[in-house]
Every structure is written in structure tokens, then in C-alpha cells.
Amino acid sequence: MTNNPAVNPKQQVAEQAANMVENGMIVGLGTGSTANLFIDALAQRSRQEELQLRVVASSVISHNRAIKAGLSVLSINQLSGLDMYVDGADEVSDDLSLLKGRGQDLVKEKLLARHADQFVVLVDESKQVRQIGEKHPIPVEVAPDCWQLVQAALQQQGGQGSLRPNAAGDNVFYSADGNLVLDMTFTDITLKNLNQLLSTLPGVVEHGIFYLLASEVLIGKAQGVIRLT
Ligand code: 5RP
């Protein structure tokens, strides 16, 4: 465990992950407050050590932040692979399963996580759970015309939930890819089976369970950083 109480836990994991990046890498940038800290830490290290890095972003926000920080940004459609993807998460369990997708960029987040040689997850200890789905519903991103059929199919499997509203609460929420999101809770189904169900149900574009994708999780705690592998 590394101990640096002077900085906050998210800052600590962001800096530790930035130090894991090697010269010449293509690095995927996640989305959220922790991913923002990583982008800044990576840009600072890249400037100081004159690293030759290229990055690719999972969202417009991360793309713009990376450009502003002086990083060299590629488009996803220029990639045939990437060395490392670094992102936050909403929930993490001890077996390195994750829940993501409280933001609007789930499709690109999972795409980059899946195609990276290493997927490094950055969280503080508030994100640790015994079971995925313990604190948040599972986001299920659906093509707009499909949501009722998907909802009905998931209800048949014991799921409960409805379309996510937008921030103002006066309309439905649309993802960055123009889809709707069903926020669903499930009981009596294992994470493995739920992942299989959501990954194969027609009409589902993507979902928030990141099963067997993370290479390691850095957890920022008051006493320092814990590394789960
Ligand atoms: C967005 C995500 C974020 O990574 C997750 O919400 C964590 O955010 P933060 O770093 O702000 O706590 O999955 O879809």
C-alpha cells in the first residue's frame, strides 16, 4: 500500500495509474471525475517526461479535456487496438466485476475497456460492494424503438425498472449514442447469468455490467492505495 494522506483518494489512484503508462502507448480515457483527474495527471507526466503518447477518449468531455491538456488525441475509428484503458466505476466487487454507466457514455466505455490490453479501474472505497447491483440499478442501454420489448423480456426474468429520466425530469434520458436507458434491478440471478442475458438479448445495445474485463482495480483509501488484481 502506498501512503500519501496529503492528496485525496481519487487523486492518488489517478496519479498511480498515470505512472503505469509507458512511453509510446495508446491510452484510452474514461469518463467521470476520476477519469478527469487521470487525464490531468497523464498530461502532466507526459509534459514533464516528454513522453510520446496517444490517447483516445470515451466521451466528448474527455476528448475536450485531453486536447486542452495538450495530449495527442486519436479518434476511435483510427484504432485497431489500444495498450491501456483507464476509467472510474460506480461499483466494484472483490472479483473485479464492475458496474458502470451512470453517465451517458457506456457504449464507448465498454468498447475501449474490451479492446484494451490492460483495463485499469480507479475508484475510492465508497465504490466497493459485496455484490454488483447492491447500490445502483443496472443500466441497460436500448435502441429507442426496442425499449418496451426489452423491458418486458427482462421483467420475465424477474427484472424491475423503467426508463431513466433526463436531468430536468421532463423527458427521457438519451445516451451519447442516441439510445434510451432502462435502469433495472434483479434478484435471484447470478451476475454471470445476468451478464449473459443482457449481452445476448436483441434490442440491448450495451449494459453496465463489466464482467471479467478489468485487469486491475486501484482503490484509494484514507490510508493509501490498495491494488486488486
Ligand atoms: C460513467 C462511469 C463513471 O466512470 C462512473 O460513474 C464513476 O464516476 P466518478 O469517477 O465521477 O465517480 O461509469 O458512465
Average of per-residue pLDDT values: 96
- The arrangement of helices and strands along the chain is HEHEHEEEEHEEHEEHEEEE
Please summarize the sheet with the most strands.
7 strands, mixed
What is the helical fraction, as a range of percent? 25-40%
The total count of strands amounts to: 14
Number of helices: 6
Shape, principal axes of CA atoms: globular
Low-confidence stretches: none
Strand order in space, largest sheet: 3-2-1-4-7-13-14
Which percent band covers the strand fraction?
A: 25-35%
Distance between the termini: 14 Å
Spell out the blueprint of helices and strands.
Blueprint: H1 9-20, E1 26-29, H2 33-49, E2 54-57, H3 60-68, E3 73-74, E4 82-87, E5 91-92, E6 98-99, H4 106-115, E7 116-124, E8 138-142, H5 147-156, E9 160-163, E10 180-185, H6 191-200, E11 204-207, E12 209-210, E13 216-221, E14 224-228
Parallel strand pairs: 1-2, 1-4, 2-3, 4-7, 7-13
Antiparallel strand pairs: 5-6, 6-12, 8-10, 8-11, 9-10, 13-14
The structure holds ribulose-5-phosphate (5RP).
Ribulose-5-phosphate (5RP) is lined by residues 30-34, 87-90, 100-103, 105-106, 109.
